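Consider the following assembly input.
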Amino acid sequence: MIVIMERRATEEQIQQVVARIEELGFRAHLSRGEERTIIGIIGDERPLSVEALEVLDGVERVVPVLHPFKLASRDFKPENTIVTVDGVRIGGDEIVVIAGPCAVESREQIFEVAAAVKEAGAKMLRGGAFKPRTSPYTFQGLGIPALELLAEVRETFGLPVVSEVMAAADIETMRAHVDMLQIGARNMQNYSLLQDVGKAAMPVLLKRGMMCTIHEWLMSAEYILSNRNYDVVLCERGIRTFETATRNTLDINAVPVAKQLTHLPVIVDPSHATGKANLVAAAAKAAIAAGADGLIIEVHPNPDRALSDGAQSLRPEAFAKLMTELRQIAHAVGRRL
Ligand code: PEP
Ligand code: MN
């Protein structure tokens, strides 16, 4: 349920409503818009009646929220959320491109990629330290040495870093080395990990599970938000369908659907969505045209020798070319890049 306050409601009236909500055993979440304040009620509100709050001074109306996700819902917060990662704003007019290798493989590799993607206009660097691989016999990531390299490269190039967290036990180490925690597609429904990254109070990049609906994805975001971490960026990275021509199927609809349902920023990963380097540009352009707030793209100096996801990794030159093309698309839809 949400309580929409009157345009002229006083601070005292707002606080009285909050106090009443808390007295009834719920948590109140305030969203102060330019026009008016909306108070969201958090908890199992089934026993609560609209009348209990509608009678309070300053209340315009009380409306049930139609979706099971509340804090993530646009009903709760009509304005877009901007997530700031060490000064980089995701969700505003400017499209944010995050680029880098699937995994950190060596000092030379990560430094070379970072220099190239920064030069081309990427605002953040990606690089896996802990890799969720299908086979336990393939490269699992360098682990902590990779995090140390990421911290060093971030220092050198001034690029904020995102890296995937697979275990809650790694969160504190990651905090010291990276700026944003990625929850991978395979862990989107790892609810205990979601709660832990919620409590970690670090920005989170939440990838959509490859077999999850948009609603399930938003419910996963809700797990993080309900732990008082509001810095969540959603990432569509392709879903599994009957189609085998591509690694996954980019659900381009998910971008406008998610943007309608939630105030959180939505970005797209055209690398995992297609699985093929020669399809990445088309998918990236489509994403920006569809309203995505950013992209996360895999770039490797030598894709043939990559230890993971070489087939979908762009060479630095191809990435630079794509960035110039994306600027035109961004401009056409009223955004900057
Ligand atoms: C990745 O970003 O390298 C990755 C493993 O992504 P996803 O979780 O979307 O498969
Ligand atoms: Mn990858």
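The pocket of manganese (II) ion (ligand 2) is lined by residues 102, 272, 298, 308-309 (CB under 6 Å). Ask yourself how this observation constrains the way the partners meet.
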